[in-house]
Specification:
globular; Immunoglobulin-like; five-stranded antiparallel sheet; mainly beta; 2 helices; 235 residues
Length: 235
């Protein structure tokens, strides 16, 4: 990642607004385990796959074993990055959520079962609004597919209705690409614009990720969250 863009990427993640943090990154401590229970994908196109990783941190003095990971529907696949959480270490519960057969607001869950008597079960929730776009702020395109030779593509978010909107944060589920914010603020009739650049060091294969954006709407109390699937093919 280029130094300037790495700095911008980290800055935007660190400055996510409180509404977005409460929806996706608020963490709790439960008998020595720390984790966030809810992830907000926000608005997503119909018929795509998006991704996220819940992190469980073990602050205790004994290892915790992940016995089983299951989901509430066939639309969500989930697995643990490791079967054991050593003291002071963490594991990621990786999920893939497919939006096919859904429309509008939806909430699904993933259940993690452990051998830890104090926290035998952890339920993670992921929420999304599928096929609908708030105030007609619809990303163009609504998903990105990079073939070999595609070094960059742009995403624009038009603002047809509000006096002003502002990109206040973004986060990639997997760090397969760099993000360059071209236009971070847009008045009515203007558009937000980002450039997505696959990393040059990606190995041959298909690399799947998703980009979650948080847009601040000064006229309203809540923020607008949306997720864009990203697929990169390298041969």
């Amino acid at each position: 990642m280029r130094p300037r863009r790495r700095w911008l990427y980290l800055l935007l993640i660190m400055t996510l607004p409180l509404a977005a943090l409460s929806a996706s990154n608020q963490r709790i401590e439960n008998a020595g385990l720390e984790y966030g229970e809810i992830h907000e994908f926000g608005h997503i196109g119909f018929g795509y796959k998006v991704f996220y990783g819940y992190i469980i941190v073990n602050h205790g003095d004994k290892p915790v074993r992940i016995e089983k990971v299951s989901s509430s529907c066939e639309c969500t696949k989930a697995f643990a990055s490791d079967s054991t959480i050593a003291p002071g270490d963490s594991v990621s519960i990786q999920i893939t959520f497919e939006t096919t057969n859904y429309y509008g607001r939806t909430s699904r869950s993933v259940l993690v079962e452990t051998d830890y008597p104090k926290v035998p079960k952890i339920t993670f929730y992921h929420q999304a609004t599928i096929g609908q776009w708030y105030h007609y702020i619809k990303p163009d395109p609504i998903s990105l597919f990079f073939l070999p030779g595609n070094n960059s593509k742009k995403i624009v978010l038009p603002n047809p209705a509000l006096d002003r909107v502002e990109l206040s944060g973004f986060e990639a589920s997997h760090p397969h690409f760099d993000v360059n914010v071209i236009t971070g603020k847009a008045a009515r009739g203007e558009q937000l614009e980002l450039e997505i650049l696959p990393l040059a060091e990606l190995k041959a294969g298909t690399h799947l990720s998703s980009l979650t954006l948080t847009v601040k709407l000064p006229e309203e109390a809540k923020d607008y969250v949306l997720t864009i699937p990203v697929k990169i093919a390298r041969f």
